[in-house]
Fold these 4 entries.
Entry 1:
Amino acid sequence: MFSQMTPKELFAFACRMRTTLDTNAIESRVNNLLKVLNLLECQDTLVGDTAKRGVSGSERKRVSIGYELITNPSLLILDEPTSGLDSNTALKVINLLKKEA
């Protein structure tokens, strides 16, 4: 189901289901998170899955991280957030997480 949604749709869905924010606040939070995670270029691209190509591997990692960050958690536990990524992309993900911390 989520593979047939865009990052923007996924973040909005997660925010609607997991917070009590109003529509304007949700839109603001989604747009901010897309910017912070550097997903603006692919915000309207389907995430995809093994059967249907979508966003790249690093973009998919950032989408999954953003799905959890959308609720503004006080604690975030990540299991191997850089697995399967090349060294340059892994460094970008780690720097992003350091910045968010």
Entry 2:
Amino acid sequence: MATDRVLEALVAYDVDHQILDCDPDLADTAEFCAHYGYALDQSANAIMVVGKGDPRTYAMCVILATTQVDVNKVVRKRLGAKKASFAPADETAEITGMVLGGVTPFGLPPELPLWIDARVMDSTQLIVGGGSRDRKVLLPPAGLLQLPGAEVVEDLAKVRPAI
């Protein structure tokens, strides 16, 4: 079960963290932050991306909720693919064992690259998915760097345009 792998990873890598329970209907970032009183710039999304070659290549990107992954430039180049996109929900679930709204950088398959946008590291506290839609993890961003293969990437994400 993904939630067990998440907890095991948090303990194994000695990550200072707090588990936050949440209503599964409020697990999506904007709803979670609005309901539980957290700012979007202290919430991070773990988003799986895919290079559309043969074979397909994947990476997990961790970005602030106020930004969007630069799939067409940075991700595509890093994956060495001609085309890249966000991985479909079913592929994300198949590879990570986690559903959207609960995807986290903890408990991932060891061969999956983990790229962290540099802006994430500027936060004092960070909220990420908890492996399922009914919980989140609150931690200092440095805890992400304790994961094997974690790499901080400048400009992995772009600031979302104002609406």
Entry 3:
Amino acid sequence: MKPNARKLTALAAGLAALLCLSLAPRRAAAQAAGPSGEAQTVAAFEARAKDYSRLREDLEEKLPKLSKEAKPEQIAAHKETFQGMVRQARAGAKQGDVFTPEIAAVIRAVIKSEYAGQELRELRETVMEAETQGVPLRVNYPYPESGELVEMPPTLLLKLPQLPKQLRYRFVGTNLLLVDRENGLIVDYMTSALP
């Protein structure tokens, strides 16, 4: 092989190595996201949950602070006022604004992969036995005080997308709700979360 040909071969090999190195981070990111862009879907959901959280925090700051000696009726009036402010600010909110079809599919897949057989039967039994019959599947409506709060299994919470501290996941039948833990409003819901 001629010296110039060796140099060109070496240069080509070097360029190929550089190209591989520059593409490695992109490949790693694509593999982390999964074939369906799951990481992007989760990030978008978490951003929507944070947007709600910021909105309700801004509204809550406009409310007069409750004293430590507040009576139950004052606490109830404060909560009702807070609910009204959030409902008005989200007057156009509808089912699927936060739980888009894409994130609903991801959550269903997570639940299905985490629970099968006996574990799934036990989870369904716990959820179905809860006193949640009066809980409306309506965005911007309060979760009834009388409605039982079915706690999410900790192992499942670790697998689901992370929520801001003001929000909680709640099962109502086979449906999954996103509920504001302080004012009790149903922020959004998805149907058929449990397989």
Entry 4:
Amino acid sequence: MSDTITYAVPGIHCEHCATSIREEVTGVPGVEGVAVDLGAKTVKVSGEGVPDELVRAAIREAGYEVA
């Protein structure tokens, strides 16, 4: 069964932001899907046993802070 974790990322505001985050987070082991909601400023990550700290690090690597 796949888990879904939602992260608040207040700095995202455009498709370029979303693409950068998707590219970084997709590389995290166990990640099966990444959905960025620009309106809600959230990133939903799905997968099995996805390490929270690695997802947060990937979002930071893309240039954004997790609230």
